[in-house]
Amino acid sequence: MAGTANGRSPRSVALVGPYSSGKSTLFEALLEAAGAPVKRPADPRNRPMTTEIRLGHATYLGDEWSILDCPGSIEFAHQTCAALAMVDFAVLVCEPSTAKVAMAAPLLKTLREEGVPHIIYVNKIDTLDGSISDTLSALQEFAASPLVLRQMPIFEGQTVTGFVDLMSERAYRYRKGQPSELIQIPEHILADEQAALGKLVETLADHDDALLEKVLEDMKPTPEELFRDMHKDLLEGSVIEVLVGAAEHGNGIRRLWKALRHDAPDPAETADRKAIDTSGAALAQVFRTVYAGHTGKLSYARVWSGSIADGAQLGGTRLGGIYHYVSGELTKVPEARQGDVVALGRLDGVRTGTTVSPGAVPEPLPFPQPSAPVYALAITTTDRKDDVKLSGALQKLAEEDGSLFITQDQETAETVLHGQGEIHLQTTVEHIARDYGLKLATHKPAVAYKETIRKAVNEHGRLKRQTGGHGQFADVKIEIAPRKRGEGFQFIDKVVGGAVPRNYIPSVGEAAEEATRKGPFGYPVVDLSVTLVDGGFHSVDSSDMAFKTATQLAMKEGLAKADPVLLEPVDHVTVIVPNDYTARAQRLLTGRRGQILGFAEREGWPGWDEVQALVPEAEMHDLIIELRSQTMGLGTFHRHFDHLAETKAELKTA
User: Fold this and answer.
1) pTM over 0.85
2) What is the chain's mean pLDDT, rounded?
3) Is residue 320 packed enough to be buried (19+ CB in 10 Å), middle (13-18) or exposed (0-12)?
4) What is the 3-state secondary structure (H, E, C) of 539-607?
5) What is the largest CA-CA distance in the chain?
6) For residue 2, what pLDDT is reported?
7) How far, in Å, CA of 90 to CA of 102, rounded?
8) Rounded distance, CA 162 to CA 154, Å?
9) What separation in angstroms does the CA of 46 have from each of 52, 100, 565?
10) How far is CA 146 from the centre of its chain?
11) What is the pLDDT of residues 303-314, one digit of tens each?
12) What is the CA radius of gyration of the chain?
């Protein structure tokens, strides 16, 4: 691939933000302004939710860029985290609404923890109701670094018509679909503009002694000094620059492009930030896998160093094409070089997260791990002949989506999808139908109930059959007794005097344990002991099978008499919510038969709480749906099995 006009390596930027903030519209507007437009929906308001990373390539003023449009829903956060681990820079997109800025809190936390340089783009500025300072104040509660307003909106009545670039002290009027028009700063906002500029300078001066001296001496810094300090502080994470615009109308897009050109670090700086050694052979990392119909498997990868030519051996596989996405279309390129984010063709056997090189097998680079699943659906094919085809589809889906977990539950005999929420799994089922031609039925996964007994019983099992020739005879006397919870099954031999020959006793134990697989209510029986105390045999007609049958008869009768009780699994659940919603989360848990164990502030998350509770697994299925609906989509939880407990639920025999 040819170099850029200015000799810079290709750079990359991720667009992240809450659902409905307008990231995808901004993605399209940026590409359009760079001369690489992609098809936009006729009505952006009816745009489908972004559920996977979109990659676009463009050149703006001689600089090559890879732009990643990341999903906004928390249910697809793993993809966003994977993208952030690859890029040089990020733009956090949010709406100018004090009620919605809390939705950006998890992303601000991730950006800070991962050390990704970033700015905030307040989109839909034409819908601003109130002042931009109110929006920034609300955002500041969730940001660890000071927010610095770079652009101040210009109002005419209640309408935002343009902005003032505070650092250059130039005013611009928005023009739909066109570059903004340079105008004089309106007189009625001069005082507000000077106050906003003063605040910007004071914030930057906190990190620059030379600039602080100018402030103290009442000297006005030059725009060049402000640009230099802003760039330095952004890369250090000392401040977060805030821009405004309206992507749907093309407003503020070119100013955003210029900020990206000026402030985004070079790939070598990003590699240095991530402590990646770029001195050896070419190095790339796969961060997304897509099975794309006729194109086959595509592996999205970031090239950290060197260059990789088409046909190179990567991960033991010959590379089958290098692609850019130009104007939404796959475009083949001869090579990928440091900084490129590309789609690599037919890297069979190379999984998401893998570090590859044309040279020796490289040391693996860190890669984000998905969150534990919070929602599950059991699936079956509507046509049993499709079961084998489904198995192959699920294997590919698991490779495409690291946050999707697939289990074959041995106890319930169900194939279960585990993911990050209802939309995540519905999208997966639709993907299977659309791309693999498989129709699935879905249902709530069965709960793995167990049974136990509450009293000891003695039972006699006797088998005597004569059918001509050798018959069948076995006689066993057993004691069935409860054990403490969690102690499991135990078989005890107390036979004396040879009442049951030693060679048949193991068969009695095996049959007793097999009988616990399905108790009176149809579920496995746990935590009991079976003691063989006496019995009888026939020298000719007794056999292992006869003793097994007699034992099973005794167990079936005995378990029904031993005061059986149904046990349900109980999970230890940690719910994580902003503290404004803590009381609501507690009510939600108690309404699901949960026992609150306590709550405390979440470590490292000011303003967030963790609520600990014990909740029956039967109440967990749609907890995440209700929790998110009551917490603006911010609430989540993690859980693990804690214990089995007697259930008050209505008993149903299998």
Assistant:
1) yes
2) 93
3) middle
4) CCCCCHHHHHHHHHHHHHHHHHHCCEEEEEEEEEEEEEEEHHHHHHHHHHHHCCCCEEEEEEECCCCCC
5) 117
6) 39
7) 18
8) 5
9) 17, 20, 52
10) 28
11) 999 999 999 999
12) 33
